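User: Predict the full complex structure for these chains.
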Amino acid sequence: MSPDLVDPSVVEMCSALGDETRWSILAALGEGDASASALARRLPVTRQAIAKHLAVLHDVGLVETVQVGREVRYRVVGSGLSATARRLDAIGVAWDRRLASIKQIAENL
Amino acid sequence: MSPDLVDPSVVEMCSALGDETRWSILAALGEGDASASALARRLPVTRQAIAKHLAVLHDVGLVETVQVGREVRYRVVGSGLSATARRLDAIGVAWDRRLASIKQIAENL
DNA sequence: CTCTTCTGCAACCACACAGTTGCATCGTCG
DNA sequence: CGACGATGCAACTGTGTGGTTGCAGAAGAG
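Assistant: Here is the predicted structure of the four-chain assembly.
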């Protein structure tokens, strides 16, 4: 259930999260919605660089945009993270369970 | 407790997981431990490329090595994934909770 | 002992991408 | 209206890195 409108692959999501600057942006957004220009004032990178990162984050559904007058505010979407987290955990658990069963088989030889 | 010998940062972990080939390797390893050469026979990439990927995965603790005679078998460590998953989920939940509280404040104006 | 095969190291190529500068546009405030 | 600040698009640079080939050393298999 909950068909997950857009369902970016786990690797796309991880790829998006595999960048230091992107985390800085997410952290900054965590303290309140902000526009690309506003973020550029707080972070040591250009507005255009931030815009690109925001595009990436938006593509995988980690942020959403809110039009406020002439500026475009960005808001972090935590549920995107949680969804990926659940998927990762499921995979990890499955692997470990498999490993455990193999170990048991080996012990039962 | 369980001091987590190496504690790769979330971004390092995500960076390691942000690669298609690496997931192929993990998937292949999921069906049983294997050496770099063995993996190279199953995947459409060179042994050296696989070796590099395995090094990355090993650095973040997603795989562990097992010496078997002269060859080096690799085994996937699911708990590494689960740990990162928990961290991601915690962050996501915190962000969403913050967002919810802000929304509530706005409604109470 | 010899041949095979598994490993490791190093150099090299090529593409992806983070980051920059520059320009053009458009809304908004004075 | 004019100026400032926000956005968007495009081109360029440079570094990181996924991938390759090549070679040399060790350890089993025959």
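The longest helix of chain A spans residues 78-107.
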